[in-house]
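User: As part of a screening pipeline, I want to sanity-check one entry by hand. Below is the sequence and the SMILES for flavin mononucleotide. Please return the complex as structure tokens so I can compare it with the automated output.
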Amino acid sequence: MGVIDLIKDRRSVRDYVKGDIPYEDIIEMIDAARWAPSSGNLQNWYFIIIKNREKIEKISLAANQEFIKNSNAIIIVCSNDKIVESIYGDRGKVYSIQNTAAAIQNILLVATEKGIGTCWIGAFDEEKVKEIAKIPKDISVHAIITLGYYSNKPTPPKRKNLEDITFFEEWGNKTYKPSLYPIMDYLKEEINKIKSLKP
Ligand SMILES: Cc1cc2nc3c(=O)[nH]c(=O)nc-3n(C[C@H](O)[C@H](O)[C@H](O)COP(=O)(O)O)c2cc1C
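Assistant: Here is the complex for your manual check:
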């Protein structure tokens, strides 16, 4: 599957069937995560794989989200914010969030390609999750990713229209100026040419 199709195919899956996700598959996801961009290439992220059922249940409680307990595995995404903040100051807080978010998206996409459902969980009691997974005080917990096989993929939730979220050159300007974007016109022509070709 091409990357655009993969991006659109990814869904937050919250209904899992029983199964064991091999460590090899999860490691491949984390391998993709470490190739995400990060501020100053600091790679200040850490990933904890959890398969233990008791721990998964505790995490479900810490997040107060019932469906988590039926997932086949979990990845806890953490970061060392201190190292980023020592270099970039207050802005480092934002960078840590962005670094881990880029890594998380890579994990979700590799899982999607493997037919494994995921859900990005942001709402949880961080202190409780730290306790369950023995995460040090000075490490932040950014997200929990549930992993699980599924029988039905949810229908895609609606997306905002492109024209409502895209501005040209300045905030609020929705007027497309073709003269400023010759490459887009060129691409359009090329795409039309390809479409008109007979198989
Ligand atoms: C930062 C962040 C936090 C989220 N937290 C939760 C969560 O706590 N529980 C949950 O069920 N889904 C959570 N989601 C998933 C969103 O609800 C979901 O991505 C959104 O509804 C769009 O659906 P889709 O992922 O299928 O495209 C979170 C997503 C993001 C990016």
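Points to compare against the pipeline: The beta strands are 45-50, 73-79, 117-121, 140-148. The radius of gyration is 20 Å.
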